[in-house]
Task: structure prediction
Amino acid sequence: MIQAIGLTSTPRRDLPPLVDDLTFEARPGCVTALLGEPGSGKTTALRLMLELAPGRGVTYFRGRPLHRIPHPAREVGVLLGDVPGHPSRTVRNQLRMLCAAVGVPASRADTMMEVVGIGGLRDQRLGSLSAGMDRRLGLAAAMLADPCALLLDEPTAGLAPRERAWLHGLLRGHASLGGTVLFTTDDAKEAARSADRVVSIASGRLVADQDAADFARTRLRPRVAVRTPHAARLADVLGREARAAHRGVEIVEESGSRLSVYGSSCAEIGEAAFRHGVLVHQLADETGDTALPVPPVPQARTGAGSGVRLEARLEAAAQVRTGPHPGTAASGPRPGATGSGSADPGSGATDPAITDPRPAATGVRSAAATPPAPAAGPAAPAGAFPRRARPARDAHAVRPAPAVRRVGGPLRPVRYELRRVFGTATPYLTAVLVAVVSAATALVLARAGHTSQNRMLAAWPEPFPLPPAALGAGLLGALAFGEEYRYPALAADRGTVPRRLGLLTAKLGVCAALALLLGALAVTADAAALHLVFGPAPLRAPAEWAAPAASWAGLLVGCAWAGVLASGAFRSAVLGLAAVLAVPVAVVPLVRKVLEGPSAHPASGVASRLRALASAPLPPEADRFVLGALRVMAQPVGAALLLSLMVLLCAYAFTGLRTRVRW
Result:
């Protein structure tokens, strides 16, 4: 059960709100259509329900607002527009990344790809998917956590009729198993054909909340569907008789053998065809553009408000693929054979974009089928699909709301971050570019001379603000949150800003590891290039390696963390990388003026005083490491980087972790 109460968007300046005091509900076991013209506020209403847009009002999902649900993705599946994913990421990698976000096993991705019929596209890039396949991927992502409710924003926009029929069949199957489905559309005929209940809005206000039958009777035009092999001849006959009787009749040729007649009746058309000797195969009264009825697929039913289990959908799909269940009518066309109830069986038309036709029958029920009966009613009819035993639930029982506040971020943040990073070629290309540029720079420095060995191995000339490895680490760090805002895979059910500290910790840890690997790769590539070109002459065994290694690691990790925090605070990868470059360009000169000035009191003996503060006795060798760390922090670059990290952490905490007032 979804209950939206008093949804009102916050207007900008003196403009009226896009959604104004909207109240409606979507019931379990039913498909609800939110109907409105473009610009009527349908998408804004969904965003208000999901707490993605500022405004007033509250939406209850089975009695709880979304910010009181610990794991929102397990309660509601969302599809808002296209699938938010990097174009170069594969379908399988995208779903596996989202599996880590919602806390389900990675094998769930393969299962859902088979359910929605994109199993053959698992290695396809997201940027190369057609509109129909993109919608299938979006549905797979929405149903990964087996949610009780589905919220879809114009899911059939730009789809072919067969794809529309398949999508509505899948939604109908979800509702038939006790789930709640709410989708938006601007097509009244589609709403009447595919939904059980239609909520009409205009200018953000509620206009009507009706059953689909009442909506079709009051809002759509009645018509007569005629199927005849002499469609053109019958159309000419009906037109001549209407003109002779001065009656307004509209005749629309749907196909070569089908007519839609508005303003007449079955009796009048049948009599006219009989008088002129025109053979008629079918006459049917319809409302609007309702498709011809197709025998319904048997359904499993559960109690209202219960979650929809993927296993039950798979059992239903298997039954449909293997033929009619014993006890069902054997006559009529085979359900799911064409994927559309209105398709002509003799046309033989196929969709070349569909590689696996089997899922077209997954959970399909025709638009003419009646809504599922509550679980408390009579037993399911003979031939219904068997379902797994589940504990009985009261339809109105609501679990007590936990005293938690919804926070964003994946349930398995480290796994999510690893799949996000290595799902594209960005880290590999960055590593190759850093190695090549570092090696070339090191060779130039060795040939010119007058450069210390440490700077030569780091490929860091004096005029350059940062070495290539540090720039690469900062770039990967800036992309950590930059991709989250450019391709908001977590935004559909958690908000635009990822707010969980676990996600921030995972990003910092993964980026630190990548930065250290980049640094090791750069030093290795530089040493190998120098040894290959100049032999062992430019390189010699260092007398002290711990302090330079610590400085090098601190620089790389600091640049990576600065990129992560800056991109999270400024919501842009470009601004995150700019913040990394601002440290040596703007902050270091300021810190150098402070540190290089005269000091009235020396800071000698800091290591011994710090060791005295420790609760446990430290070995004497610890002074060496403490002094090394203090020496690194006392350098202008280290101090500027540390200061910048503290400022960026405060900025991220202010922009990303602050809470919002709700009611």
About this structure: The two ends are 20 Å apart (CA to CA). The first strand starts at residue 2 and ends at 9. Residues 111 and 130 are 21 Å apart (CA to CA).
